[in-house]
């Protein structure tokens, strides 16, 4: 099994970035990139950081009893999860395919999990009023699925990718993910982020 997880031998080792981002980097993005570079977060660190932010919003939603507060965290959870999902699919999963021998198969499973564990349930959840009796059961069901997916990414897929990348490649991929996330619409209340993810 381990033998199939080796890094692909390829002459082109540059981490690619969505073409829509090239030549279109604002000062804000540049500042973020500089910060990210300064902190030197590798891709696994950045993914784990995203996951822990998403988990924090989930915990705030289920521990709150104030509907207004829950709606505020619902919007933040929705936006963070949607843009993380978009970023992974545009930047990280292509890297899995590129650098790992069995990357295509890993990505096929990850995309399938995104579809069922994230997109379908998130679309239902984002439009739900916090006073709806289905509100908490819906987010809990979403979280149960998502938690498994997150664990799988952190301990297997992204860990394998991290092992296959040089430090520089990992840092560049991490910056590319952060830049891509900045371009995902933030008007989550109207469903922009989820629509982008779906
Ligand atoms: Fe994912
Ligand atoms: Fe993830």
Written account of the structure:
There is one protein chain. By secondary structure, the protein is mostly helical. Residues 11-24 have low confidence and may be disordered. Helix 1 packs antiparallel against helix 6 (167-182), helix 2 runs antiparallel to helix 3 (67-99) and helix 3 runs parallel beside helix 5 (135-164). The longest helix is centred in the middle third of the chain and has 33 residues, at 67-99. It starts with 26 loop residues before the first helix and ends with a helix. It has 7 helices and no strands. Helix content is 72%, strand content 0%. The chain binds fe (ii) ion (FE2) (2 copies). Residues 88, 110, 114, 149, 153 line the site of one fe (ii) ion (FE2). One fe (ii) ion binds at residues 88, 110, 114, 149, 153.
Brief characterization of the structure:
Helix content is 72%, strand content 0%.
Low-pLDDT runs of 5+ residues are 11-24
Radius of gyration, taken over Cα atoms and rounded to an integer in Å:
17 Å
Described by its quaternary structure, the protein is single chain
> Any ligands, ions or cofactors bound here, and which?
fe (ii) ion
General form: globular
Pfam families: Hemerythrin
Protein name: Hemerythrin-like domain-containing protein
Features of the shown structure:
binds fe (ii) ion, 72% helix, Hemerythrin-like domain-containing protein, globular, 0% strand, 198 residues, Hemerythrin-like
């Amino acid at each position: 099994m381990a033998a199939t997880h080796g890094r692909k031998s390829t002459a082109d080792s540059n981490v690619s970035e969505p073409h829509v981002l090239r030549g279109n980097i604002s000062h804000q993005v540049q500042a973020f990139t500089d910060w990210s570079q300064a902190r030197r977060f590798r891709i696994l660190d950045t993914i784990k950081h995203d996951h822990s932010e998403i988990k924090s919003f989930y915990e705030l939603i289920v521990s709150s009893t104030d509907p207004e507060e829950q709606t505020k965290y619902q919007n933040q959870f929705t936006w963070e999860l949607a843009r993380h999902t978009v970023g992974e699919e545009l930047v990280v999963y292509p890297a899995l395919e590129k650098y790992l021998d069995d990357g295509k198969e890993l990505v096929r499973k990850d995309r399938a999990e995104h579809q069922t564990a994230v997109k379908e349930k998130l679309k239902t959840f984002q439009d739900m009023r916090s006073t709806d009796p289905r509100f908490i059961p819906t987010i809990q069901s979403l979280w149960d699925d998502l938690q498994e997916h997150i664990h799988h990414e952190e301990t297997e897929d992204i860990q394998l990718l991290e092992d296959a990348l040089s430090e520089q490649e990992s840092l560049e991929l991490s910056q590319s993910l952060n830049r891509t996330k900045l371009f995902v619409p933030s008007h989550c209340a109207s469903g922009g982020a989820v629509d982008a993810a779906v």
